Amino acid sequence: MLSLFSLRKETQRRLRRKNRVALHHWSASKITTGSKLIINILKGTAIVKATICQSSLHSFAFVGGLLASSQNQLEILGPSLGRGARPYINSKQRWRNRIEMEFVSPEGLRLDGRRPMEMRQIRAEIGAVAKADGSAVFEMGNTKVIAAVYGPREVQNRTQQINDQALVRCEYSMANFSTGDRMRKPKGDRRSTEISLVIRQTMEACILTHLMPRSQIDIFVQVLQADGGTRSACINAATLALADAGIPMRDLVTSCSSGYLNSTPLLDLNYVEDSAGGPDVTVGFLPKLDKVTLLQMDSKLPIDIFENVMQLAIEGCKAIANYIREIMLENTKQLEYRRGI
Amino acid sequence: MLHSKTFVKKTRGGKVNKQVREHYLRDDIYCGAPICKLCDSSAARLSPSASTILLLDTNVVLNQIDLLENPAIDDVVMLSVVLDEVKNKNMGVYNRVRALCSNSLRRFFVFANEHHKDTFVKEMAKESKNDRNDRAIRVAAQWYQSHLGGAARVLLITNDKENKRKAIAEGISAETIESYVKSLDRPDLLDLVVQPSSEDVEMEEVEDLRPSKRKVIYTEHKPMSEITSGLHRGIYHQGKLRVNRYNPFEAYVGSESIGDEIIICGRTNMNRAFDGDVVAVELLPQDQWHEEKSLSIADEEDEEEDVHLVPSSADDAPRTTNLVQGSSGDTNAVSSRPSGRVVGIIKRNWHSYCGSLEPMPMPAGSGGTAHALFVSKDRRIPKIRIHTRQLENLLDKRIIVAVDSWDRLSRYPSGHYVRTIGEIGDRDTESEVVLIENDINSRPFSSQVLACLPPLPWSVSSEDLANPIRQDLRDLRVFSVDPPGCKDIDDALHCTALPSRNFEVGVHIADVTNFVHPGSPLDDEASQRGTSVYLVERRIDMLPKPLTEDICSLRSDVERLAFSVIWELTPEADIISTRYTKSVIKSCAALSYIEAQARMDDSRLMDPLTTDLRNMNVLAKKMRSRRIERGALTLASAEVKFQIDTETHDPLDIGMYQIREANQMVEEFMLAANVSVADKILKHFSLCSLLRRHPSPTREMLEPLLRTAAAVGLNLDVSSSKALVESLDRAVGDDPYFNKLIRILATRCMTQAVYFCSGDLSPPEYHHYGLAAPLYTHFTSPIRRYADVIVHRLLAASLGIYKLPSIFQDRPQLTSIADNLNYRHRNAQMASRASVELHTLIYFKKRPTDTEARVVKIRSNGFIVFVPKYGIEGPVYLTARSEKGGGEWFVDEQQQKIKKMDGSASYSVLQTVRIHMEVVEPQPNRPKLQLTLT
């Protein structure tokens, strides 16, 4: 029988070699990554700390890093009770530390110096892509997106044609350089597909599609610089580009996000606040009609607080709508000026 | 109002990567001085008449926090750059500064200079972060100076030589903290000033009093980079250092990388680490591993074991390192546990400590200042060297001292005086010490908390009665049974015989959550306190007195709101149905245990209340026997009861707490209610219920019990709780006390039960070992335990009465509440024990006593006895301490015996001995209880 100690030595030696061993039998439900297990080694039973990881085909146990060659067959007898689960507590504490991070100082200033109800600086520009029928750049702080609209035009793929309304298509992508450090995955990943769908549905709800049957409207949005709230910025940019393209709409749909951190509702989360893991509510809003067309939330909130947070996001949408209107007015003035009226 | 300006800021994480953050500069940040005419002064915190406004440098805040907490320092502007730096360096100090800033009695103003358009400074080329921050502080100081004009003097306080020089060059008045305190002309404050240890000194040279000792005592701590790489390569092991409560020269580091505890022996190996520090440990070569001998009672010169109360569980008991005997019997082959030494300290756990100064002669003519050694009450803490100007005042006082640094050239850490508590030996002072040591908040409730109370006098209103969720149970014959003199009655019972020969039994618990609303200041305060603390002479309430003693207390003959659990029980005490409801009750009698017992025993009494009591007792006995059959432990504790003189509060008599049938009856129904409620809440909220579990003891933990039992020829089966119960029942010796003694020893091997959040563990781990119940929680004492308040809310939510407060959706927060409750609960127990110990000492001061005691543990120079009558435990020395290791006595490890070499005398474990108890004062003002053989 291996004594506990020599096993430990053994483990340490193996640790340097880094090999891993498939488990023959395993009751996965009780075992989580990093839990302590009782493991049968050869004939002796010993308690060792094992790290469990699961690949698509096999489950592996890393015992104290690794264990055993193929002769050392492992059998997990069950999670060890009592002194176990220490690594788990550690990860929980790490989580708690993140939760307890101070996102709003007692003086009422956020990390970037805004107050809870303040939005980042917004800036918009119409007509960034000359070739497109309509285009716009929209910035919310360091988040910068560009949108281009083609259409209404003939449907490219006849099978998709709808006889009584226009087909709206949307493609969202993030520029590879948008986040700075990491290369993004190629387009078509799940996140982009989801956001594409969200933007499409939001825009479809405000475009008067029945006025343009058997035609197609393409909306391309690309994130040039990402710093949280890309979804909202994309919707705002798309609205401006649609307006620029002269596509008939019910209203100018605008979007803004809000969150809830340190028991305070916060407007327009930036990347740091967004990655805190707290609730993040994104609202799409038709200001004239006073209707919500998009509502999404990560994490969870009690219903009464949620209402406050959503109301805050709606206020943000209204402010953005005012700004967008101003920009459009200015743009129209410019056009008038160019025509010499 | 949004004056914004975007620009880039680079930060470096673990990897070198550029990060861009927005940084908005504002024009709506005000200076906080009410005299200012330009700013909005509605949020001003500084005093209108302040002649001097202080701006503090980071090093001052970090090192002099004790001084800042003194009310003499006020009108302080805290710059946000300073707060950020403090937060990065020391979270503990940061929290204290934040508390100061939010304290309405203090005038500390936080100025967000980093976001003010005029005081923000951009990092210059080749400027270090530190220099940039120093510059930011100076810029802010200059801004204040010009902003306030001549209305107030702005003084920058810094201990950084360079910073001070530059500040003066820039026309800012700057001083060191010491010269500032001197200018205040308050000599007592000077003791609070921490002597700087590093090179940024600017004070007069502290002359070294012990030049001969100027040699290296401890090895240097490894630099952090080396520690990290060492941890990676597995050479070092990280863990929290825990010092043996009963032997400060021995410590343990629980290491995950080794999966076991590493023993650290001696101060040299501990290398300046304190209890609770996170340290990096290097294993010693195996031939230096600690050889496990039965440790002698006292290990080194001036340390010795005190008489103390009997530990009630393994958590309190002295740690003994057990040699796990190999089954082959070859003791040499089995290695002892790994030993190691500390190579570096990853995180310090320094805080302030309670204690007194070591008696010393007054030094002659050292200009009023003196070095003194401080001895902490907590034996795990080494002596601390402090520098004081008021030595004669402090010598016979209990004081609080904070640690500042521990140089490797000095034997003891150096610290500074924080405040005085009172005279040593004075009962109030010592009680205060007990409270401070256990981190118990005994301050009166704040006005915000008291504002949450319903208006007095309070009575059940018609709205309460009309409320459909509240059942009117006033016509039931409800009564309460509690200890005599109990004012916070949180439980009451009723028992009605039903026509079907079944019984309806109800447990009615004070409806505290009707008054304590989630999120209110009252709730926050209660959740912080966690539990009421019962000391011998006083009680520290969790809830304000009107709630505790009146509104919630289920007193007799008044209508009260309750939360009821009502069962229908068969005569065999099987539960047929369970019902939970909020209710209004009217208790008809508040009995004490003695009264209830007397009623049940008095066969002449046939009134309905007595019949109810008897019925309940019969049911309770059946429930109890069933529970014991399942394997619930009936463990014994050596709880004692004091009789206190009402005038002087001195203890008059002391005796074992007597447990009657009535106690057991009430206990049984409370257990049943708790179990029923645990079932109910877990069914509805499987992830966020607050339950209580008791882990099964491991064989290792039961080892001391088994060894003792084996020595007296008793074979205990500890394979399961049921087996243990049965073998404990069989353990009947020739004297009546034997069984109880074995049970007491068994109790102390167990860990304590703990609260936990059900989502954190898997269902098999919910088990309560001691009660042999798969589920258990606390429901029955919401007046004195916060856990019960939480459980009340859960139960109400599961019945659909209230919504579940949002906190329950946040598992990490719920877990932290459970952790806090465990911590508070444990501290409350420690405080009660300490209070009993204190009163035991006071009691025996005037009454030296001879009594009978039992040997419970053998040591190489004596043995430890347990005194059943007074519930205390302490050492009896066979060899005088001066002739250490006299070799006259010989310990038989196997037999647990200590014999004289010539065979004339021997003592074995569990043997009865006569001892003499007396309070002695080996050093003035430090009385202790001494046990000697008669």
From TrEMBL, chain A:
<dbReference type="GO" id="GO:0071051">
    <property type="term" value="P:poly(A)-dependent snoRNA 3'-end processing"/>
</dbReference>
<dbReference type="InterPro" id="IPR001247">
    <property type="entry name" value="ExoRNase_PH_dom1"/>
</dbReference>
<feature type="domain" description="Exoribonuclease phosphorolytic">
    <location>
        <begin position="251"/>
        <end position="316"/>
    </location>
</feature>
<dbReference type="GO" id="GO:0003723">
    <property type="term" value="F:RNA binding"/>
</dbReference>
<keyword id="KW-0963">Cytoplasm</keyword>
<keyword id="KW-0271">Exosome</keyword>
<dbReference type="GO" id="GO:0005730">
    <property type="term" value="C:nucleolus"/>
</dbReference>
<dbReference type="GO" id="GO:0000177">
    <property type="term" value="C:cytoplasmic exosome (RNase complex)"/>
</dbReference>
<dbReference type="GO" id="GO:0000176">
    <property type="term" value="C:nuclear exosome (RNase complex)"/>
</dbReference>
<comment type="similarity">
    <text>Belongs to the RNase PH family.</text>
</comment>
<dbReference type="GO" id="GO:0034475">
    <property type="term" value="P:U4 snRNA 3'-end processing"/>
</dbReference>
<dbReference type="GO" id="GO:0016075">
    <property type="term" value="P:rRNA catabolic process"/>
</dbReference>
<dbReference type="InterPro" id="IPR036345">
    <property type="entry name" value="ExoRNase_PH_dom2_sf"/>
</dbReference>
<dbReference type="InterPro" id="IPR050080">
    <property type="entry name" value="RNase_PH"/>
</dbReference>
<feature type="domain" description="Exoribonuclease phosphorolytic">
    <location>
        <begin position="118"/>
        <end position="248"/>
    </location>
</feature>
<protein>
    <submittedName>
        <fullName>Uncharacterized protein</fullName>
    </submittedName>
</protein>
<dbReference type="Pfam" id="PF03725">
    <property type="entry name" value="RNase_PH_C"/>
</dbReference>
<dbReference type="GO" id="GO:0071028">
    <property type="term" value="P:nuclear mRNA surveillance"/>
</dbReference>
<dbReference type="InterPro" id="IPR015847">
    <property type="entry name" value="ExoRNase_PH_dom2"/>
</dbReference>
<dbReference type="Pfam" id="PF01138">
    <property type="entry name" value="RNase_PH"/>
</dbReference>
<dbReference type="InterPro" id="IPR027408">
    <property type="entry name" value="PNPase/RNase_PH_dom_sf"/>
</dbReference>
<dbReference type="InterPro" id="IPR020568">
    <property type="entry name" value="Ribosomal_Su5_D2-typ_SF"/>
</dbReference>
UniProtKB/TrEMBL annotation, chain B:
<dbReference type="Pfam" id="PF13638">
    <property type="entry name" value="PIN_4"/>
</dbReference>
<dbReference type="Pfam" id="PF17216">
    <property type="entry name" value="Rrp44_CSD1"/>
</dbReference>
<feature type="region of interest" description="Disordered">
    <location>
        <begin position="296"/>
        <end position="338"/>
    </location>
</feature>
<keyword id="KW-0694">RNA-binding</keyword>
<dbReference type="InterPro" id="IPR029060">
    <property type="entry name" value="PIN-like_dom_sf"/>
</dbReference>
<dbReference type="GO" id="GO:0000175">
    <property type="term" value="F:3'-5'-RNA exonuclease activity"/>
</dbReference>
<keyword id="KW-0540">Nuclease</keyword>
<dbReference type="GO" id="GO:0071031">
    <property type="term" value="P:nuclear mRNA surveillance of mRNA 3'-end processing"/>
</dbReference>
<dbReference type="GO" id="GO:0000177">
    <property type="term" value="C:cytoplasmic exosome (RNase complex)"/>
</dbReference>
<dbReference type="GO" id="GO:0000176">
    <property type="term" value="C:nuclear exosome (RNase complex)"/>
</dbReference>
<dbReference type="InterPro" id="IPR041505">
    <property type="entry name" value="Dis3_CSD2"/>
</dbReference>
<keyword id="KW-0539">Nucleus</keyword>
<feature type="domain" description="RNB">
    <location>
        <begin position="470"/>
        <end position="801"/>
    </location>
</feature>
<dbReference type="InterPro" id="IPR050180">
    <property type="entry name" value="RNR_Ribonuclease"/>
</dbReference>
<dbReference type="InterPro" id="IPR002716">
    <property type="entry name" value="PIN_dom"/>
</dbReference>
<dbReference type="InterPro" id="IPR033771">
    <property type="entry name" value="Rrp44_CSD1"/>
</dbReference>
<dbReference type="GO" id="GO:0006364">
    <property type="term" value="P:rRNA processing"/>
</dbReference>
<feature type="compositionally biased region" description="Polar residues">
    <location>
        <begin position="319"/>
        <end position="338"/>
    </location>
</feature>
<feature type="domain" description="PIN">
    <location>
        <begin position="52"/>
        <end position="165"/>
    </location>
</feature>
<keyword id="KW-0269">Exonuclease</keyword>
<dbReference type="Pfam" id="PF17849">
    <property type="entry name" value="OB_Dis3"/>
</dbReference>
<dbReference type="InterPro" id="IPR022966">
    <property type="entry name" value="RNase_II/R_CS"/>
</dbReference>
